[in-house]
Amino acid sequence: MKLSRLRVPLGYLVGALVVLLARPRVATLAAGMALAVAGEAIRIWASGHIEKTERLATGGPYAFTRNPLYVGSALMALGVAIASASVLVVIAVAAYFAILYPPVIREESAFLAARFPGVYAAWAQDVPAFLPRLRPGGPRESRFDWSRVRKNREWRTAAALPVVGALLSWRLL
Fold first, then answer.
1. Which of 24, 65, 120, 167 meets the CB 3.0–4.6 Å disulfide criterion with 116?
2. Residue-range domains of the chain with CATH
């Protein structure tokens, strides 16, 4: 089984662990949720550019990193970990990302390189796989469109964020 298939189910498991182990305080909740919202904003921006398997997204956040959805997810997870104020949560979230995301990024890179050989090679040469560059690079051909955000069902992640915030608020000491 590919790790990409385990990413979402294990994410739910880590999410449940977060809620169980969380010991948030007002300050950690505020700081962490602000970071999580910033991560979701990046995900929305990225979702508005991507047309999965149809065209290679190279504009917007894809001019800074080849995986802005994952960067946004990582920021969201880091934000939730900070909000939880639990060392065990930080370790669980870090392990989840360290174990699952590098192989998933490699799988997706191989798929995109095969699907869009010429464009991908030029884009990958200028744009890093994960840690964003400071200035945009690459061809920057895609444009943001709200209909793509809807089509990519980013509303599910956006809707989950207030639920996580409410659950963590419920756990306030």
1. 120
2. 3-170 (1.20.120)
